[in-house]
Amino acid sequence: MSAKSDESPSDLIRARDVGGFDVWSLPSFDPHVPEPEPEPVEELPEMEEVPLEEVQPLTLEEVESIRQEAYNEGFAVGEKEGFHSTTLKVRQEADVALTAKLRALESLMHNLFEPIAEQDTQIEKSLVGLVQHIAKQVIQRELAIDSNQIEHVMREALKLLPLGVGNVRLYINPQDFELVKALRERHEETWRIVEDAALLPGGCRVETEHSRIDATVETRISQVMAKLFDQLHEQALHPAAADLSLELPDEPLIAADNDLGDAAPDTSELNAPALDGRDAP
Fold first, then answer.
1. pLDDT tens for residues 35-46?
2. What pLDDT, in 10s, does the model give residues 247-278?
3. Worst-scoring range by mean pLDDT, 7-11, 35-39, 126-130, 212-216?
4. What are phi and psi of 214, to 5 degrees?
5. pLDDT (0 to 100) of residue 13
6. 224: burial class by Cβ within 10 Å (0-12, 13-18, 19+)?
C-alpha cells in the first residue's frame, strides 16, 4: 500500500519542480503620490593633474649645509637663553651680596654712632652740671661783695602778700641786716627782721601766720636750673635730624661757643621771688 501511494500522483509541489515563479504582492488602493525629484548633485571641480617631479637625492654638500644651519640656529637660541639665565643668576647673587654688605654697614654705623650719642649725652649732662656749679659760685661771690639787690627782692616778695596782713617776719643773711633795717625805718614798716646765716646774701624769706614766700638765692637758682633741664629734656624727646654731611662748618669753634651760650642760665630771673605751696593768694 505504501508503494502504491508513492507511485500515485500527489498535489504537493516539490522544490526541484519550482521554476519561474515570483512573489505576488497585493496591489495598493491608496492614491498615487508622486515621487520627489532627485536633488541636483554638485559637480566637483576637476583636479588638475600635476606631474610629479622627480625627487633628487640630497648631495653631501647640501646635507652638510642643512646641518650647519640647524647648528647655528640652535647655537644662537642657546646662547641667548644662556645669556639671559646667566644675567638673571648674577643679578640675584649680586642682590644677595649687596644686601648682606648693606646690613653689615648698617650694623657698623650703628655700633659707631651709638657710643658717640651716649658720649654726647654724658658730655651734655657734665656741661650742665659745670654751668650750674659755676653759676652758683659766681652768684654767691657777687652777692657776698654787693648784696644791694636785696631791696628789689624784698619789694617783689612783699607784693605777693595779701593787703593788710600783719606780723610779717623777714629772714635774711646777717650781712644784709643793716640795709634791711634802714629800709624798714625809711618806709616806717613793722617788719620783724630775723637773721639766718644759712641764707645767702641777697635773698630773703618772708613768713606770716598764713603765708610763706621763698625768695632765697638758692631757690631762684634752682628754678633757673630746672628750666634749663626742662629745655634739655624737650630737646632729647624731639632731637634734631642727624646731619651726616661731610661738609664741615667754616667756623666750628664759634658755633660751639654759641651752643654753650644758649645753654647758660638766664641770671636775670634770679630777681624773681618764689611762692611756695603754702603761700597765700
1. 777 777 777 776
2. 544 444 333 344 434 444 444 444 445 545 44
3. 7-11
4. -100, 105
5. 64
6. buried
* Gap between the Cα atoms of 116 and 238, Å rounded: 18
Which residue, among 200, 236, 244, has the nearest Cα to 128 in the 3D structure? Answer: 236
Nearest to 136 by CA among 203, 59, 36, 46: 203
pLDDT recorded at residue 9: 53
Out of 75-89, 109-123, 195-209, give the one with best mean pLDDT. 195-209
CA atoms within a 13 Å half-sphere pointing along the CA-CB vector of 206: 25
The residue ranges of DSSP E strands in 123-264, in sequence order, are: 169-172, 192-195, 204-207, 212-215
Domains annotated on the chain, with CATH: 147-237+264-275 (3.30.2320)
* Residue bearing cell 637758682: 221
pLDDT at residue 199 tops 80: yes
pTM (predicted TM-score): 0.41
Q: Which residue has the cell 644662537?
A: 76
223 Cβ contact partners less than 8 Å away, ≥ 6 residues apart: 269, 272, 274
Look-up of cell digits 519550482? 18
3-state secondary structure of 176: helix
Position 54, amino acid: E
Q: How far is CA 200 from the centre of its chain?
A: 53
Side by side, which strands form the sheet with 274-275?
192-195, 169-172, 204-207, 212-215, 274-275
Query: Average model confidence (pLDDT) for the chain?
Result: 74
DSSP 56-101: PPPPHHHHHHHHHHHHHHHHHHHHHHHHHHHHHHHHHHHHHHHHHH
